[in-house]
Amino acid sequence: MEPFSEGLHKVVGGSTDSGYESDSEASVTESPRADKTSVNQREPVLRSKLKKLSEIQLKPEQVLIRDKLGFFLGVVNLCLSAYWLGGSPQTFYKYYTAKAVVLYGSRFYLYRSKNWHYYMLEFCYFANILLLLEVWVFPQSPTFHKIVFAQVAGPLTWSIVALRNSLVLHSLDKITSLFMHISPALVCWAWRWYPDPSVVKFDQMSAEQLKAYNTASWWDIGVLSMSSYMIWVVLYYIKVFVLSQDNVKNKGYVTLFQYMTKNKKSLFARVVMSAPEVLQPVVYMGIHVVLCWLATMTAMIWWHSKTAHTLFLIFCASVSAWNGATYYFDIFARKYIQSLGIEPKPAKKVE
Hints:
Layout: H1 6-12, H2 23-26, H3 36-42, H4 45-54, H5 60-87, H6 92-113, H7 123-136, H8 142-162, H9 172-193, H10 207-214, H11 218-243, H12 245-250, H13 256-261, H14 267-273, H15 280-297, H16 299-304, H17 306-340
């Protein structure tokens, strides 16, 4: 749910295990909400109903069943993704699209009820929208193809490492966060090296168009691709720091800017907060721009080398798997049963 810049916060001063908090622990960090009566007066009836549904407390046995089901579905998804990507990489974007509708729809419902929905204005979601536009609306545009590749194969994929995305199969929130970064990366890999001929109709392209579609320069990757990113920067700044500034304060909405600057010990927060208050959002967005541009430049390597691109994705997937293993064995194992208030069953003797 966070963009690439949060990696700097976690590396240079953030909590060393902030990426591994359990779902129950994460709820403790919610910002104070406005009085329920006043909220219901200001917000639509639907918002009130969503809030009530989100506050339903499950019994420990129900939580166990939910998490077992989530783990089962997570394993099925991994198997299906591997089979689909290996058997028909050119159509993998269809599976990605179906999952995006389900996962982002459920995330908006959950985040809206917790006042976290401003997280969904971040660049990660914008990059996913660009990818969906490419595969479904502009599949034959050489320019759009290179813009999307640079943004997805660059900062969006690097975010897996920077944000310490973890493969935690039973957690919908963690799986969605990993999905929004790794699935677009896999789609871009397939779209670059195994494009769908029924969608990208090369036989209808001229020699000049075909060359433009398959070649990329430093200008294309480092400058042209940043044009779409800068559009997001401007729109995001106007929305979050100008138009909705009062709403964020008065209604208790949570933004990434608040999260990133709340830890006064981190280098990132100190740099941002050292500026005059009126300039702090500008400094924050400036750091974001620099980090994303640096990550975007690496996409030039992935564009020209299938081997390097593949190894990079394997590396990022391995990092997420290791982070997931760290979560399960260092944190989850000792806290999960305790958080449910259930006495652990005695282990059976193995003869």
